[in-house]
Amino acid sequence: MTIIFWDLPSTVGPWSPNTWKVSRYCLNLKKIPYKTEWVEMPDVAAHCQKLGISPTTNKSDWNIIHALPAIHDLSTGIYLSDSVRIAEYLETQYPDGPQIFPRNTIGLQIDFEDCLNAKLASLWEFVVPPIWHILNPTSQVYYRTTREKAWGKTLEDITPSGDDRAGQWKKVEAGFSGMAVWYSKKSGGGPFMMGSQVSWVDFVVGGHLMWFNKAWRDDDPKWKAIMLWNSGMWTTLL
Amino acid sequence: MTIIFWDLPSTVGPWSPNTWKVSRYCLNLKKIPYKTEWVEMPDVAAHCQKLGISPTTNKSDWNIIHALPAIHDLSTGIYLSDSVRIAEYLETQYPDGPQIFPRNTIGLQIDFEDCLNAKLASLWEFVVPPIWHILNPTSQVYYRTTREKAWGKTLEDITPSGDDRAGQWKKVEAGFSGMAVWYSKKSGGGPFMMGSQVSWVDFVVGGHLMWFNKAWRDDDPKWKAIMLWNSGMWTTLL
Question: What angle do CA B176, A176, A217 make, to 5 degrees?
């Protein structure tokens, strides 16, 4: 079995939290061989339409949207997009070995991303603008246009400044502390939400951390701060 | 072992989603004998302070708040408030029999209430005002004062009207459909989030449903609608 895995390129490797969840984490957990192919953002829709890959979402305010990750499983001939759909497919098609959603927790696992997005809503303003700098020129134009339309302001104006910035960053810290409470509750040790057993929610958190890291790089004070928060627990999920 | 369980009274029995989670659901699941004692809302703070029960929350914008549920475990002498703290205590102190947080899922379970509150945020406007009608007079005054302060408007103005009402109710329906997706994912049948295994999140949903039922009563069109949504799946969680 081999899987073709389509990812979004940058000057510093994969950066999307959604592609990270599937590629590095799920495929590696299940030890499924895969080959990454890169698609620049303006080419994603045509790429998916050509291969008959269903839209990832159908948001009424954005029209139909094709997005990565997407996969082609050469063993079954299946084409698929959307990180959760891909994870469910991999779990069903390749049930041996470690599970992505162990112990019938899939409902509990997939609701988590809504929680994380609510907890870390303030963080997007700090992450979305700097990603532009690591994209290749062809994706930069597309990225700027779509994000500025979504926010209704220029990329340069999305990140708050002054008191507003400090307040939003405090909310980010509170969001991480809230997640740390959830992580602190399990029994029996281990760094993961289910103790020694890694699962989807850890990939969601890990994928988001990788996104922040790519946006800011290792020596940014924001990144250094997160790595120190909550007794350094977030470093173990990378 | 016997537990004294403090609950909020009304003219139609228990109504608080937080006390429902602990009393009917957790204590019954673990088959722990308990005796309910009723405390009117204006008396809760003095009641808890007299018994040395810690505040349930410390919200900076509300000052310190004592709230029910609270318990006194006659076997251990412990006094405790807050539904999650009580559930964790019962699980640790009475580990035999069914678990409230099975299979090391406590972190996944307790994040769920944030998700539910986000999904059903629009619902509060429809539930908070009618609860006033089922309270005893001594609690009605307290309830009106605190809720009107929190919303910044009269109880009568909290529920939206006209187009706004229809729009907010559409969001409620979408919220239930979102939760139904989470519930639909498990394997092996059974009505619960973890299939045939009931757990905390089902108590959270069930407690909220009981709250809506007490607010509206059985013949309210809103209640009838929810009972029909998502193929009637919510009736099974009551």
Answer: 120
